[in-house]
């Protein structure tokens, strides 16, 4: 070796670098393994609905903490039962239930088992938010099935999952997997759809791969869903000028009961949309409603899920998204311009009927979304987006619109996390004339006033009277400047 080194010093340098590189890789792999929770989830019964979970933590702990509330659904921790630690020799470590979802032991353990009681939520709309299981299908979300914290400095940051389902059932997920084995570096956004009648279709859309999974029988085909979702995804790629970093997954599940598509609930986690939709209607009606729902939910793949922003900014990623989706519906021909105006009028009436409509700013309402102010986040947020869009079009002579705000938002540096409200308000305020909108409605609790802004477009507000709701109508005597602005809004 010394002779070779003497003759070829460059070779020695390469050997040292190669060894050092291998050492770094081994350390990285070892560190990754050390942070991984290994878990087996088994469906032991669908009626009653129960799971058994066998887990190995990367480091021993005395404490387990499970999520007890999410999206207004309370008591999730009460579903965790029969928690036991297991010593290396197979003997049991006693673990006591200190509070709903909170478990403590007298000695450390790393291997433990527990069962999860999964009755369907009392409200069907909650099924898109939390895990549930019945004889027809199951929606399993690692966020409420796995422990959130172990109070150990080296707690797990990833998970290796083995999933055992009943004979004849299949598995779909937003995770990459082989057979029944899956891995995730973000358990919080990991979702499984299981059942005996799953249909899966893949579609390539430019740089984005779309997977559509349907459960049960529907009056439409998988191609119908892929076509609608594909058009919407392409539109949002154009608007944001941003390509999704992960494949998009859409899971479509029947809304329980004999109901039509007007009954629906959805949630977007990471790269997956979980949609519950009523199916008692004609193919045309179900697809029409599906498109309108997806125009909102699919945008969440971008906002907030592709943004590195921190804080409570529901007013923007829910309220503004509602308006952005409405514009998409109009552009793609899913609704007419009259439908567009009627929707704004209905939302205005809903906003006006909320007791706290003139008591909370959008910032305050976002902080209280899951307690008392959820409707305000949606209604006032959507109305402010409408007013901002119209105002921006006017001051730029129809050169810019709310679309440009989103494009600018996605041009921000992708490193680190920024304060969401400061960042978004900063972008909205770049047109100095529009600062009053963010000051009055986002940062303060001024009641929304439509008329001063819509009048420039030749649009009039016909206030609600008795049982008749408000209407936005076009002024037949509108001048040329008003008609010009109206033309760029259509």
Which short descriptors sum up this protein?
14 helices, 4 domains, 24 strands, globular, alpha+beta, disordered N terminus, 5-stranded mixed β-sheet
Overview of the structural elements:
This protein has 490 residues and is an alpha+beta fold. It folds into four domains: 2-33; 35-195, Immunoglobulin-like (Sandwich); 197-297, Neutral Protease, domain 2, CATH 1.10.390.10; 307-490. Helices cover 35% and strands 28% of the residues. It has 14 helices and 24 strands. It has helices spanning 2-7, 9-34, 142-145, 222-240, 283-297, 314-331, 337-353, 362-367, 374-395, 402-409, 420-428, 435-443, 451-454, 480-489, and strands at residues 36-46, 49-65, 69-70, 73-74, 80-86, 92-93, 95-99, 102-117, 132-133, 138-141, 158-164, 170-173, 177-178, 181-184, 191-195, 198-205, 208-215, 248-254, 264-269, 272-277, 309-310, 418-419, 459-462, 471-474. Strands 1, 2, 5, 6, 7, 8, 11, 13 and 14 form a nine-stranded mixed sheet that branches. Strand 7 and strand 8 form a beta hairpin. Helix 6 crosses helix 9. The chain is globular and about 85 Å long. InterPro entries: Peptidase_M4/M1_CTD_sf, Peptidase_M61, Peptidase_M61_catalytic. Residues 293-373 form the Peptidase M61 catalytic domain. It comes from uncultured Acidobacteriota bacterium.
